[in-house]
Design brief:
Elements (H helix, E strand, L loop, with lengths): L1 H23 L1 H63 L7 H40 L1 H15 L2 H6 L2 H8 L6 H8 L7
Helix pairs in contact: 1-2, 2-3, 2-4, 2-6
Keywords: Coiled coil
Length: 190
């Protein structure tokens, strides 16, 4: 009976030892690497999306400034054209040259109105695109939350070794200051 008990303990200890060995060597290491990759992959995707949105935001604001500048210039041109037309009104019926100038200015005013309408349409289109851009901000927040979820788990920074991070980090292009500002933890790849 003592032999069977000793043998049973030996088998149990042997099994437990093997289980601990396999858990600590392959699966945990693979799982640790997988966790690190998930964190960095999710964050890199967030960073890329953020940079693209930042570029798009800059382009929209530039376009908005250009339209505003064109509008201000058109407004000044329209006022000047109107003043020129008003100045010609007294002589329109008396002088053919004055009448020709007046007709030319009226045609210019009509073209000016067409350009103003086209600019208004551009502004409406731009406002619509800005609204779409603002509405899509939720997707950026979702990507950020996904990256935070993958990276902020305490186990990531307390269990994963520097070797795991070193191995994984070289595959990603992440700005450390951006990571620290968005995740709120030290960048693990340094």
């Amino acid at each position: 009976m003592a032999t069977a008990k000793s043998f049973g303990h030996a088998v149990l200890l042997g099994f437990h030892g093997c289980l601990l060995y396999f858990m600590s060597v392959s699966p945990v290491h693979a799982n640790a690497e997988q966790m690190a990759r998930q964190c960095l992959n999710d964050f890199e995707m967030f960073q890329i999306y953020y940079d693209r949105r930042d570029d798009q935001h800059r382009e929209l604001r530039t376009e908005e400034r250009q339209i505003l500048t064109r509008h201000e210039r058109m407004q000044r041109d329209g006022e000047r054209l109107l003043a020129e037309i008003e100045a010609l009104i007294p002589c329109v019926n008396r002088d053919r040259a004055c009448r020709a100038q007046y007709d030319e200015k009226i045609e210019m005013a009509e073209r000016h109105q067409s350009r103003e309408q086209a600019l208004r349409n551009e502004a409406i289109n731009l406002r619509s695109r800005i609204q779409e851009f603002n509405n899509a901000g939720g997707a950026l927040q979702e990507r950020r939350e996904k990256a935070i979820d993958a990276c902020q788990r305490p186990v990531m920074f307390y269990v994963l070794s520097a070797d795991v991070w070193r191995k994984v980090c070289r595959d990603y292009h992440i700005r450390p200051d951006f990571f620290e500002a968005r995740i709120g933890l030290p960048f693990p790849c340094e």
